[in-house]
Amino acid sequence: xxxxxxxxxxxxxxxxxxxxxxxHELAAWAAHHLSTHDGPHAEVxxxxxANCVQAVDATCRKLVRALGEAGWTRYAVGGRAYGxxxxxxxxxxxxxxxxxLAYHQGLADFAFAMQGLGSGAITLHGTPEQKARYLSQVxxxxxxAAFALSEPEAGSDVGAMSTEARVDGDAYVLNGQKTWISxxxxxxxxxxFARAPGSQGSRGISAFVVEADTPGLKIAQRLEVIAPxxxxxxxxxxxxxxxxxxxxxxGQGFKIAMQTLDIFRTSVAAAALGFARRALDEALHRATQxxxxxxxxxxxxxxxxxxADMAVKIDAAALLTYRAAWLRDxxxxxxxxxxxxxxxxxxxxxxxxxxxxxxxxxxxxxRGQVVxxxxxxxxxxRIYEGASxxxxxxxxxxxxxxxxxxxxxxxxxxxxx
Length: 417
Known about the structure:
Blueprint lengths: L16 H17 L16 H20 L21 H14 L1 H20 L2 H12 L5 E4 L15 E5 L2 E12 L6 E7 L9 E7 L5 E6 L8 E12 L3 E2 L5 H37 L1 E2 L2 E2 L4 H29 L5 H26 L9 H12 L6 H17 L13
Parallel strand pairs: 1-4
Antiparallel strand pairs: 2-3, 3-7, 4-5, 5-8, 6-7, 9-10
């Protein structure tokens, strides 16, 4: 089938004319440049090993360049003077882009998202010199960005990180390890979070821009996961960087990380929506074309019930996702709303895709089928940028805090999980 994303939700009042124009133009571009009859991962080899890693790396670089040349990555950067389309990042636009790209090709969504997440801290807290050096190149797809926060013993618990940054004259010296770093191995620079020696918890963490060719920064291991994309473990061994590479102020790193994640966490929900919408369309196609016991699969009431359930979950998640995006674009802090969006969209998308696989039967678990690749794509979204269980904790914490402080501005936090 020739995939075409349904865009009836653009009629909702969350969107303005530029958003609708963006969605229509991107859908046409993606249909032409990304979709093939072989599905979302047609260009990415499915075998394991070094050859697969190299092929995925090459494909991701190609996608970043294509997205940059077409102007889509300008939406991932804030500041017109530095290549961004707007002065501040438009969350609804980012969400629409991720939803559309995910519908067509998972790796294209990844390539776009990491340009935003990897450079988001620079957009928020970079000096004019840092912004000029990095953002315009990211917006054009000429530099690849990465966000290095997680560690082997510090994933959801950011305060447990052990990577250190000690002051040595006019420089910082970094030692430690980061893992599960998206774009690891192909990034031109990394936004790295490290703590002052002797500090504990969220205090004492600072953020730095570390260029990939800096002596002392090594790619310790390339990681392979079920939905192929560039991923690595980084090791810092007396990695010396200028004090000019500090982002914001010393000790602000935890706040910078949380603010960056607050921008892009809602967009994870949007990517899940894109996967779910594609799964529903694939399920509809299969149900109306497949004949069983003398009638179409879609004629069975059990099939109709499953399709209805899938549609309801998609719309419910979409409403929560674009509510959070709209609120953030109005200047509101949306910790609770973003957590609700990510939790609902990723969990519902997993269920929708599982339902699509079931309707496809044996073909649904066959390599090369769209629903099979979607099944692999969705799983990681329930983990990264805050696992589903972490989102539940955030939502509950905000509910309890609102109960104690009813006049508090909703969603604000500086001690996020």
